[in-house]
Design brief:
heterodimer, A: alpha/beta, Rossmann fold, 2 domains, four-stranded antiparallel β-sheet, 11 helices, 28% strand, B: D-Maltodextrin-Binding Protein, domain 2, four-stranded mixed β-sheet, 21 helices, 4 strands, 5% strand, elongated
């Protein structure tokens, strides 16, 4: 796949604190690349450096489809984390202004605005003033503003924060749709379940450093061991005595068994002792969410994996 | 530059669609006219009402008196009466603003004409009535049977004619020119400076609103901070000019009907160009300062002393108004012309008050002004770039200083 954006060795300090310590990744055409990390990890700082809103102390940012040193602003769509809209203007006016700033033809922009308003359940709101919109509606308008000019690279900083599940689904579908049509998408989030469902590759960052970088599958096979959830009344002892079980978390009638890394799920299931009571059994990999929480709380899970990997 | 124009166009459009801006746009001239109208309302109250003057004319010179009254526009209602001095007591008790003059041969001979007035009488009456002494004096002289030459000598007064050295050199000076002729371009430039500086203060709000609404980052993904700043300065400049235009459309015809002078003619003189140029320089200076300071503040209501002080800068020239106007070539005026914050206002005042323009001073002052504009634009650009993206708190002077140095 064609690489659209390369970030290499990005470093940035605020006062005496180093916010970014050598961030390197790339974004390719038609893929969704996610930057994940807890609050204050450096996600927004990375994105602002890419957008030229801040300047890195060290490192380089390259837009491949573009000659010259400036940032190709017209080809980028950007939804910042700190976002808002002018209060007392009409939806249509502000969207046309944003399109005009991107040098997008206005008649075409008008068509697309109406199309997207309809898509996002905002039909007929084009002449409504922004301050009459709810927060969620406002966010939809901002999102439309960022994709209106058919950008080649779309950068979304926490696009799902503050959205209800229905709107989240809408956004997710549209982002996927754009990627399928060839847009390179870089999104940051800490809502792991959503990211897990949609991203192709991910870059996990903590304290301004890379923790994990790779495709979702790679990451999962590399870091996410299997876990087995069993519903049924079992004593902790029995469960812990099952071979290749690392850790057991028991809650009332259900228990989660975290398996060791080199477990082959089928043979492990075959070897399950017959005295284990099974009402229900679920076998899956540890989710991104769990990896993420482990990283954020500096738990041992990822370190174990890291050590084994080393 | 293209992006700056887009931002400017947007700011203009956004404000013109904003109800409170439009109301303000028309309220300003209406307020000015309103005060003018109120003034003339009070003024007309003070105008003297007609004094009724009854004349018991036994000398048969009533026509001559009437002529004199007309000539001096005394505003009397002159009437003949047959009432004698004894009869008028009741009349005087029951009337207002009325006077009785008794022209009898005895009175003429003695030179003392009895005049009776009501308690309430126009304050100017006693001096006005003295104007009638002229024709009466002539009648007395005429009774002396003098030759025409003698008559002419007696009836002409002796006067002192003064000629000062200055007038002597330039005899045909501008002493005949109306004071308005010099004032009009100055007032015009003053209005422009005031209107666009006031509109310029909206830049300040606009920049801090941008932060509050958190739209700055979205806009900055399309334009550079410099373009955004310049766009705002240009946009509000045009809005200021619109305000000036609306003001002039309302005020000039009104003033033209009220004041009996060719105001429009006074306005279109070369002096106006320079004054307006100075006013525009003044706007650019304050616009740069406001846009920079606005970017450091998230909220008007929590502005610190520092920001408050900066906001007061344009009004410094108003403080200096009295000393500058009383002595346009004085020390205060000269120094203030070289201080960039006061120079636009003070220059306009001085040039309006002075007959001869001190060109060297003007040129130095303008050069100082232009250099400070360039400097402040550069500083504002630095402050704006960092400030506009700093959310949630106002910047301290220390922080601002750090941005400038970086």
């Amino acid at each position: 796949m064609e690489v659209m954006l390369t970030v290499e060795g990005l470093e940035k300090s605020f006062k005496n604190k180093k916010a970014l310590k050598g961030i390197t990744f790339e974004v390719r055409k038609g893929e969704i690349m996610a930057i994940l990390g807890p609050n204050g990890a450096g996600k927004s700082t990375t994105i602002r450096n890419i957008m030229g809103i801040m300047y890195p102390d060290k490192g380089s940012i390259t837009f491949h489809n573009h000659q010259g040193k400036e940032i190709p602003r017209h080809k980028i769509g950007y939804l910042p984390e700190e976002r808002g809209l002018y209060k007392n203007v009409k939806v249509m006016d502000i969207l046309l202004y944003l399109a005009d700033l991107k040098d997008y033809p206005l008649d075409k922009a008008k068509e697309r605005i109406l199309m997207y308003l309809k898509k996002f359940d905002l039909e007929g709101k084009d002449k409504v003033s922004i301050d009459e919109l709810s927060k969620g509606m406002g966010q939809k308008v901002q999102f439309i503003g960022s994709i209106l000019h058919e950008p080649e690279l779309l950068i979304l900083d926490e696009p799902f924060s503050g959205l209800d599940p229905v709107s989240q689904e809408l956004f997710k579908d549209e982002i996927r749709n754009l990627a399928d049509n060839g847009t390179a998408i870089l999104l940051s989030s800490h809502q792991m379940n959503l990211v897990e469902e949609m991203c192709d590759r991910l870059f996990m960052i903590q304290n301004g450093q890379k923790v994990i970088y790779g495709t979702l599958d790679e990451v999962k096979t590399k870091y996410a061991n299997f876990k087995c959830t069993i519903r049924g009344k079992n004593s902790l002892q029995i469960l812990e005595s099952i071979p290749k079980v690392g850790r057991v978390e028991q809650k009332e009638e259900s228990a989660v068994l975290f398996l060791e890394q080199d477990v082959d799920p089928t043979s492990w299931l075959k070897d399950l002792p017959s005295n284990v009571v099974v009402q229900e059994l679920k076998m899956n990999r540890i989710s991104l969410h769990e990896i993420f929480i482990d990283i954020a709380t500096n738990n041992n899970l990822i370190q174990e994996a890291g050590e084994l990997d080393a | 530059m293209r992006n700056s124009m887009k931002v400017a166009k947007w700011e203009i459009k956004r404000n013109l669609k904003n109800k409170s801006f439009v109301i303000g746009l028309f309220l300003t001239p209406i307020l000015i006219l309103g005060f003018g109208f109120l003034g003339s309302l009070f003024g007309s109250d003070d105008e003297p009402s007609e004094t009724t003057v009854f004349v018991n004319d036994q000398l048969e010179i009533f026509d001559m008196l009437a002529e004199t009254v007309d000539q001096y526009e005394l505003g009397w209602e002159l009437q003949q009466t047959d009432l004698t001095e004894g009869d008028i007591h009741d009349e005087l008790e029951n009337n207002e603003d009325t006077a009785y003059i008794f022209l009898t041969p005895e009175a003429l001979e003695s030179g003392v004409i009895p005049v009776y007035t009501t308690d309430e009488i126009d304050s100017g009456f006693s001096s006005q009535v003295q104007l009638l002494t002229g024709p009466l004096q002539q009648i007395r002289i005429a009774q002396l049977d003098l030759t025409e030459e003698e008559l002419a000598i007696i009836s002409s007064n002796v006067v002192f004619e003064e000629t000062s050295a200055e007038d002597y050199v330039a005899e045909e000076s501008v002493s005949l020119a109306s004071p308005l002729e010099k004032l009009v371009p100055g007032i015009f430039a003053g209005i422009i400076l005031f209107a666009i500086v006031v509109t310029g203060m909206m830049i300040f709000q606009s920049a801090s609103q941008e932060k509050k609404d958190k739209i700055a980052e979205i806009i900055l993904s399309s334009v550079t901070p410099g373009e955004l700043m310049n766009g705002k300065i240009i946009g509000y400049f045009v809005l200021g000019l619109i305000q000036v235009a609306v003001l002039l459309i309302f005020v000039v015809p009104f003033a033209a009907t009220k004041i009996d002078e060719p105001i429009i003619e006074y306005l279109f003189v070369p002096e106006t160009l320079l004054l307006v140029f100075i006013a525009i320089l003044g706007y650019l200076l304050f616009a740069a300062i406001f846009v920079g300071i606005g970017a450091t503040m998230a909220d008007m209501t929590t502005s610190g002393n520092f920001q408050g002080l900066v906001m007061m800068l344009p009004f410094l020239s108003f403080v200096l108004m009295a000393p500058v106007l009383s002595n346009p070539s004085g020390m205060v005026a000269k120094v203030a012309s070289y201080v960039p914050f006061t120079s636009p206002g003070v220059l306009i005042m001085r040039l309006t008050a002075l007959d001869e323009w001190p060109w060297v001073e003007i040129i130095i002052a303008i050069v100082v002004l232009v250099i400070s504009i360039l400097l402040f634009m550069k500083l504002a650009g630095k402050i704006f770039k960092v400030g506009i993206l700093m959310y949630g708190k106002n910047a301290t002077p220390g922080e601002i200083w750090k941005w400038i140095r970086s």
